[in-house]
Amino acid sequence: MGGDQPYGMIEDGAIAVEGSHIVWVGLQSEVPAAYADWQRVDFGDRLITPGLIDAHTHVVFGGNRAVEFEMRLNGATYEEIARAGGGILSTVNGTRAATEDELLASALPRVDALLAEGVSCIEVKSGYGLDTETELRMLRAARRIAQERPVRVKTSFLGAHATPPEYAGRDDAYIDEVCIPTLRAAHAEGLVDAVDGFCEGIAFDPTQIERVFVAAQELGLPVKLHAEQLSNLGGAKLAAAYGALSADHIEYLDADGVAAMATAGTVAVLLPGAFYTLRETQIPPVEMLRQQNVPMALATDCNPGSSPLTSLLLTMNMGCTLFRMTPEEALAGVTRVAARALGLDNTGMIAPGLSADLAVWDISHPAELSYRIGFNPLHKRIFGGEE
Ligand SMILES: [Zn+2]
């Protein structure tokens, strides 16, 4: 995709791939003579897009929260569920009890569901261990996904996700004694591509998050943040001040936060799966983000509590239907902009020099990807030039 057409679409286009990379893209009628005798694959009238990118997931976790979902629908309150061992704590317990192999094995079916829809890159966060050993185990399992499946994996350290029970009421001590030392240990082991946090009344306040960001900065790691999901604590503004790759959720983001993100070039990662599951009503400020040219990505937020979602195509539909994004914005949000949210410049577009990560679809117009619900028109996935 390139050029001035909507979506940067090229009709009757051709892509030249050498090894794992794209070397040329343009009209079939203008393929350079140098490529004339190259092996050709004819995809007919099908649409080819960049491989999709899920820029925000928690696919590595232990346990299962389906029963909790059922309890809630049978009328149990959050407190009753928490007392029965539910909520994030049940995932923390399940994750702490799982071996690295078990974490990997339970993540792979979720990853496979994403790949079946043309995904070629996923971000995976830690944040259900909340102790050094388990956070490292989660990140090692995340790294191994890329050995087990043809997919790119970017990891985010999310030690500042919640305070574990053994530190209940001592959030500051948890950040200083566990979260930051664990970040340093994970970085030393090469397990961290970015550092994330959860800035919210039910999680950490901006001063606590800032200490984690300072530690990230000292290690030369980029930051991102779960911000303004349930209230406005100024998290996105803080993230922008640290040059964050992205601020995610941002339903309650205000004009100040939008302006800060625009100035810093921070991507807005919108997560309609969590909005849907939590039956939220406050929509992210999409029109303001658009006006201020803040790029918008869309991601599944796949996690066992607030977004048990493993379909990026459904996420695109939700982005359009729930958040009023356009199908063109939705497709950019799971390709080009998603790559930017992960700090990747070698994928997310069809352009010379980039990795040949492609999705071939049995459709003729890209709006169909966002329009249909529960339909997967993937014909073929190409990862690094390999089918
Ligand atoms: Zn999340």
Write the layout of secondary structure elements.
Elements: E1 13-18, E2 21-27, E3 47-50, E4 52-54, H1 66-73, H2 78-83, H3 88-97, H4 100-115, E5 119-125, H5 132-148, E6 152-160, H6 171-188, E7 194-199, H7 206-218, E8 224-227, H8 235-241, E9 246-249, H9 255-264, E10 267-270, H10 272-277, H11 286-291, E11 296-298, H12 312-321, H13 327-333, H14 336-341, E12 358-361, H15 367-371, E13 378-382
Parallel strand pairs: 4-5, 5-6, 6-7, 7-8, 8-9, 9-10, 10-11
Antiparallel strand pairs: 1-2, 3-12, 12-13
Helix pairs in contact: 4-5, 5-6, 6-7, 8-9, 12-13
The site of zinc ion has 5 residues, from loops.
EC number: 3.5.2.7
Binding site for Fe(3+): 56, 58, 226, 301
Keywords: Cytoplasm, Histidine metabolism, Hydrolase, Iron, Metal-binding, Zinc
Tell me about the largest β-sheet: 8 strands, parallel
CATH 4th-level superfamily of the largest domain: Metal-dependent hydrolases
Instruction: Give the CA-based shape.
Output: globular
Structural class: alpha/beta
The separation of the N and C termini measures 19 Å
What is the H/E order?
EEEEHHHHEHEHEHEHEHEHHEHHHEHE
Bound molecules: zinc ion
Computed Rg: 21 Å
- Using the coordinates above, name the CATH class of the largest domain: Alpha Beta
GO molecular function: imidazolonepropionase activity; iron ion binding; zinc ion binding
Cofactor: Zn(2+); Fe(3+)
Catalytic activity: 4-imidazolone-5-propanoate + H2O = N-formimidoyl-L-glutamate
EC number: 3.5.2.7
